[in-house]
Amino acid sequence: MKKNVLVIGAGGVGQVVVHKCAQNNELLGDIHIASRTVEKCQRIIASVHEKNALKTHGALQAHALDALDVAATVRLIKQTGAQIVINVGSSFLNMSVLSACIETGAAYIDTAIHEDPAKICETPPWYANYEWKRRAECERSGLTAILGAGFDPGVVNSYAKFACDSYFDRVQSIDIVDINAGRHGRYFATNFDPEINFREFTGQVWSWQNSKWTSNKMFEVSREWNLPVVGLQKAYLTGHDEVHSLSQLLGVPNVRFWMGFSDHYINVFTVLKSLGLLSEQPIRTAEGLQVVPLKVVKAVLPDPASLAPDYEGKTCIGTLVEGERAGKPHQAFVYNVADHKQAYQEVGSQGISYTAGVPAVAAALLIASGEWDVRRMANVEELPPQPFLRQLNRLGLPTRIVQNGLDSPVDPV
Amino acid sequence: MKKNVLVIGAGGVGQVVVHKCAQNNELLGDIHIASRTVEKCQRIIASVHEKNALKTHGALQAHALDALDVAATVRLIKQTGAQIVINVGSSFLNMSVLSACIETGAAYIDTAIHEDPAKICETPPWYANYEWKRRAECERSGLTAILGAGFDPGVVNSYAKFACDSYFDRVQSIDIVDINAGRHGRYFATNFDPEINFREFTGQVWSWQNSKWTSNKMFEVSREWNLPVVGLQKAYLTGHDEVHSLSQLLGVPNVRFWMGFSDHYINVFTVLKSLGLLSEQPIRTAEGLQVVPLKVVKAVLPDPASLAPDYEGKTCIGTLVEGERAGKPHQAFVYNVADHKQAYQEVGSQGISYTAGVPAVAAALLIASGEWDVRRMANVEELPPQPFLRQLNRLGLPTRIVQNGLDSPVDPV
C-alpha cells in the first residue's frame, strides 16, 4: 500500500493528472506537483480549487524542480514523502526521474518513452535503448516502474493484452488506431508540445510485420478505417512507442500503429519539414544568431493548452486484434471514445491531454491498492488488464468492444 | 560625360552588374564593387576574370563597405573616383547611398524602392514616402538620380512610356505582367533575398484603378494571360514599385502589376504566413532566445545565388497598354523573354538577376554618354525610352512587341 503522489510536469497532461489525483485523494494521499516553472503548478492548483476537485481535505502543493537534476528530485521525493511519482514532464526527463525513484524507492509511472534530445527515431525496439537496460536495476531494488501508462501507449496495450487473452486462440495482428476527430478552430496547432509532436513524424516509421522490423516513410502507407462514433477516417502508419513493447512481449507477428491526420495537417507538416524548419539541429541566421528551427516553429504555434476552451468533437482510440478463435477467423476492436468539451468541463484540458493523463492516475491507484505494485519494471501489457480497465471505467474512460458485429461495453470483473 | 562605376551590393544582381560593366569598361572606366562582405565582391571579380569579361584592360576592385554609413560611402566614392554609383544592395540602403551621392556629386542608380526594415507596405504612392521627398535636393545640387532602373520596375516603365507615346492617342490602362516560367529543381526557393521577396507579398496589394488607390489582399485577384513563348500563365494582382510611379507620372487611370505564382509557391507562402513565420517582429523561444521568424526562414531557404547553375526555362516580362488609336480600341504588349541558362553561361547568374542587373548598366551607359545625365531625380518613365531600349537590345535584353496580332522586334532609332 503506497501513497502520496508527486506529479512531475505541469502541461496539459499534468493538469489532468493533478485533477484526477485530487478527485481520488482519499486513496492517493498528499498531492504534489513540480515543474521548472512553479507558476504553472500554481495555476493548476488554483484550477483544482476552482472546480472544488479535492475529494477530501488534504495536501496539494506546488514545487519548482529541474527534474534533470537527480539529486534535487531525490530531495523533493523525500521532502514530500511521495511513494508514487507520476512523470508527465518532457520525454527527455524519464531516465533522470527513474534514477531518483530507484534511489528513494518511490514507484515510477510515465506515459511516453524516453528520448535523447539529440536523436530522432533510434533503433527498434525503442524500449531497449534506455528503459529496458535498467530492468535488472529495478528488479534488484524491488522498484515498481510502469512504463508508458498513458492512453497510447498504455490503455491500448492493455486492450491488446485483454483481447488476446479473452477472445483468441491465436493472434495474427494488433493494429492500434488513434483518431482525433476534434476541431480546435485554429489554422494549425499540435495537441501537445510541438517539439515532441513533430519528432514523432520526422524519422522513419517502424512497424512490426511478419515478426520483423519494417521501415517506411511517414505518410507513405495509409488505410481507411470505419470506426464507432467518428465514422470513416483515414489513418497513416506511424512510428509509436507501443509497437516497440507489444511486438517484443506478446509474441504477435504483426503490430502496427495508425494515426489519423487531416490533409491540412499533412500539408503544413510537409512544407515545414521540406524547408528544414522542423530540424532540431541549430542553424545560423545572416546576422549570426544560432537557433534551432524547430524551437522557432514551436514559439509561433499556439500553446497546446490554449486550445482546450474551444476544442469540440471526439477522439476514438482503440486496438484491433485479428486472429483465430475456435478454428475460425476472428476480430475484436477494443476502444474508447472521449469528448473534448466534456474533458474541458471536468478538468480544464482538451481530450488528448485527458486520455493521456487519466490512465496514469489509474495506474497510480493500482499501485496504491497493491494490484499493480509489482516491484519491477513493467510495460502495461505485462500487467493484469482487468483492474486497469475497471479503474478507467470509473475514472471517465470507459472501454467498449466491437465483436461479431456487436458494439458493447466492457466491464471486466 | 561621367565615368568610373561603384557597384554597391554583391548578390546575384551585383554579379550581373559587374559582369556587364566589365563587358563595357571601355565606356564606363574603372569598376569597383563594395559589400559588407568583401569576399563576395572578390568572388564576383574572380568570375569576371574567369570569363575573361573585361572588354579592355582596366581597374576592377573589391571593397568592404557598410553602405548605411554615409561618411564611409562618401570616402569610398572619393577614393575610387566613381562618378556613377549603381546601388544593387539591400533596399534598406537606398537613402543612405543617395545621401553619399548628393554629397559627392556621383550619379545615383537603383533598381528597387527604399524600404524601412520595420515597416511593410506603406501608404501609396510609395515613392512619396522617401525618394520624392528628396527631389528638390537633387535638383538643387544637379544630381542625376535614376530610380528603379531594373527590369520591373525599370524597363517595364520605359515600355509603358514608349508604347503610350508611339502607338496611342489615349491610354486606358497599363498592366505589367511578370512571369518566371523557369525551374530551379529545389523544393522551394525565392529568386532573390527571401526577406525582401516575402515582404512584397505580406502587406496589402495596392493598385491604381479608375484613378484611385485600390487595396486588395495578396492572391485575391488573379487573371490568366496568354503570353509569347511561355504560353498560358496565371498571374496575381501584386503590389509593386512601378505602380507607384507610373500612376503619378503618366496620367493613366489604371495601372496594375501582375506576378505569376505556382500553386506550390502559394501553398508554401500561405503556410508560412499563416503560422506567423514570415513576421519581421521578433518572438521569444521557450528557451528565452529572441529571434525574428522571417530571418530563420531565410536561413533555411536556399541562397538565391545557388540556384543559378540548375536554373532552366524562360522569363517573360512585359507591359500591356490598352487605349485608343485613331478612334479605335488598340492594344500593345511590349515585352522581353530572357533565358535562365543563357544568363548563367554569360554572367554566372540566373535570369531573374540578369533581367534586374542589365538595365542598371544600360542606365549607367546612358549617364556616361550624357543621354540620361539629367541632373535631377527621375523615374525611368520620365526619361527618353529610345536610347534605353537600344542599349538593352545591345546588352542582351531585346524588346519585342505584339500589336494587331503581329509579334515583332522593337528597334527604336
Automatic annotation (TrEMBL), chains A, B:
Residue runs in coiled coils: none
Sequence ranges assigned to domain Saccharopine dehydrogenase-like C-terminal in this UniProt record: 150-396
Annotated signal sequence range: none
Name of the protein in its database record: Saccharopine dehydrogenase family protein
PANTHER family: CARBOXYNORSPERMIDINE SYNTHASE (PTHR43796)
Pfam family name, one: Sacchrp_dh_NADP
Residue ranges occupied by any Saccharopine dehydrogenase NADP binding domain in the UniProt entry: 5-146
